[in-house]
Design goal:
The complex is a heterodimer of chains A (165) and B (349). With 165 residues, chain A is an all-alpha fold. In chain A, 78% of the residues lie in helices and 0% in strands. Chain A starts with a helix and ends with a helix. Chain B is mainly α. Chain B has a two-stranded antiparallel sheet. Classes of the chains: A mainly alpha (165), B mainly alpha (349). Chains A and B meet through helix 2 and helix 3 of A and helix 4 and helix 5 of B.
């Protein structure tokens, strides 16, 4: 049952990820990306990480992608008005994409025999366990990342203020 | 899952779906009657006795109207917009506990579709998808007024989602759970959360108004500035879906307010009446619906009393007043909880 769900979800996530790249209209790309996030949230649920799935939907699909969509709608990009890309840019994109693929393949090859348990602990992703791990074992990294967010927030406010003056 | 459980779940799901549609349908009638009362008019009174068949007549009218898709609109997305609005409106009712439990033939059936342990986060997730219905519809119409309405809607919903989430955090800190059923069960009798979290309740209520796009926060469809806002180009039942989704959202947010802050199906002295288990549960559900109807009335009451905000006022209220107040509420709750915890620890030792 969960195997079928996994394959359907995996197919949908790869398909929607390809649609992000291949669709002609930017808005369709963004919507495909949103759909891709939903399928990834589905994978989290299959791994018993309910909290992570909910937060993933709220933060990525619900907030960040809304801003993406916001910007692209305002730019009003169309297939007709799309600026023509130079061939040098295209070649550079192909080369860098190929290099990224090379790195990913080599990294995946070096991980010999992934030790994945078939059925992860059903309670591992519950809010309670997650809170225990975050506030006990990984207290310092958690606090440091909070500090990072605070810095980003202050930075955003500073940039906003500069525009206003 | 056993057959009895499965049958109960199917009947219950269909029941919840049907009830929310019927309530949303009659909310449109109630809204017009309430508006008429506030403006010293009579309101709809032609279709059936007291105009009770008016929602049906409206529905038939909506279905019969000509369906227009603008020539330069993105057809697929134009249809997707109202579909998402309707879908997300109907999805939230899944995690709401509509009553305690019924015992049929010695077997206990919980009156809730599913009790996920991240209940309240699920609600937030669905609400945050809801904005896509408006945004996609507004953009796909290929009309500048629709686009402006859609942009207003999305920025408003993102801003107020933050304050809403933060007002909930204080509540979650007190109850120590995200499951809505456990939150309801933590407020038996008259120990409702509204008495211990008055500020949190006020913030949540204001944000609920903003999230459902109701006056005074209905800037996305502000007709004096934007013709009709995001649904300017819509006609027929697609327009109907947008309007209808708003009423379903109103019903569901009233239900969530009641569950989080007004004890859900709990009521003072309900358990000391000496009634049988099933009767108590049904009475609790009836009382819960009473509370929900009060909040639906409250939504309408505000709509016909208060004029809408200006856009900059809306943003200032959201970012400079509600969010700081929500943070203050979290800090106060944390201090009180810590103090109580210390007191409890020393009394044990």
């Amino acid at each position: 049952m969960s195997k079928i769900a996994f394959f359907v979800l995996a197919f949908l996530s790869i398909f929607s990820a390809m649609m992000v790249v291949f669709s002609r209209k930017p808005v369709h790309s963004v919507l495909s990306l949103i759909f891709c996030f939903f399928t990834i949230a589905g994978h989290y649920i299959l791994l018993n990480a309910q909290f992570l799935a909910a937060v993933h939907i709220i933060v990525y699909a619900g907030a960040i992608m809304v801003l993406f969509l916001f910007v692209i709608m305002l730019l009003n990009l169309n297939a007709e008005s799309e600026p023509h890309k130079t061939s040098a840019g295209k070649i550079a994109a192909v080369v860098s994409g190929g290099l990224l693929l090379l790195v990913l393949v080599s990294v995946l090859k070096s991980t010999d025999g992934l030790q994945l348990s078939a059925s992860p602990d059903s309670q591992v992703g519950m809010v309670k366990n997650l809170g225990m791990v975050l506030y006990d074992k990984y207290m310092l990294p958690f606090e440091v990342s909070a500090l990072l967010f605070l810095t980003a927030m202050i930075g955003a406010t500073m940039i906003g203020k500069k525009e206003l003056d | 899952m056993e057959t009895a459980d499965l049958i109960f779940k199917i009947v219950f799901v269909l029941g919840v779906f049907g009830v929310s549609l019927v309530i949303a349908m009659y909310s449109t009638y109630a809204e017009r009657k309430v508006a008429a009362f506030f403006q010293d008019r009579i309101g709809p009174n032609r279709a059936g006795p007291f105009g009770l068949l008016q929602p049906l007549a409206d529905g038939v009218k909506m279905f019969m109207k000509e369906e227009i898709i603008p020539t330069h609109a993105d057809k697929a997305l134009f249809i997707l917009g109202p579909s998402i609005a309707m879908l997300t409106a109907c999805m939230t009712s899944v995690v709401i506990p509509w009553g305690s439990s019924l015992i049929i033939n010695g077997k206990e059936f919980v009156m809730q579709i599913t009790d996920v342990n991240i209940g309240i986060l699920y609600v937030f997730g669905v609400v945050s998808i809801g904005v896509y219905g408006i945004m996609i519809g507004g953009w796909a119409s290929n009309n500048k007024f629709s686009l402006l309405g859609a942009l207003r809607a999305s920025s408003q919903m993102i801003s107020y989602e933050l304050a809403m989430g933060m007002s909930i955090i204080a509540l979650v800190m007190m109850t120590g759970t995200l499951s809505i059923r456990e939150i309801v069960e933590s407020q038996p009798g008259a120990h409702w959360n509204v008495f211990v979290q008055p500020l949190g309740f006020l913030l949540f209520l204001i944000c609920a108004f903003a999230e459902t796009n109701r006056t005074p926060f209905d800037l996305p469809e502000c007709e004096t500035e934007l013709v009709g806002g995001y649904h300017t180009e819509y006609s027929s039942m697609k327009l109907g879906f947008y309007l209808f989704a708003e009423y379903i959202n109103m019903f569901i947010s009233s239900a969530i307010i009641v569950c989080l802050y007004f004890g859900g199906y709990n009521f003072p002295f309900l358990n000391s009446l000496g009634l049988s288990h099933n009767l108590t549960a049904i009475l609790g559900t009836v009382l819960m619906f009473g509370k929900i109807f009060f909040f639906i009335f409250f939504f309408m009451w505000v709509r016909w009393t208060i004029p809408r905000f200006r856009y900059d006022q809306l943003m200032r209220l959201g970012w400079k007043i509600l969010i700081p107040l929500a943070v203050l509420n979290i800090v106060i709750t944390a201090v009180v909880l810590l103090f109580k915890y210390d007191l409890w620890n020393t009394s044990i030792n």
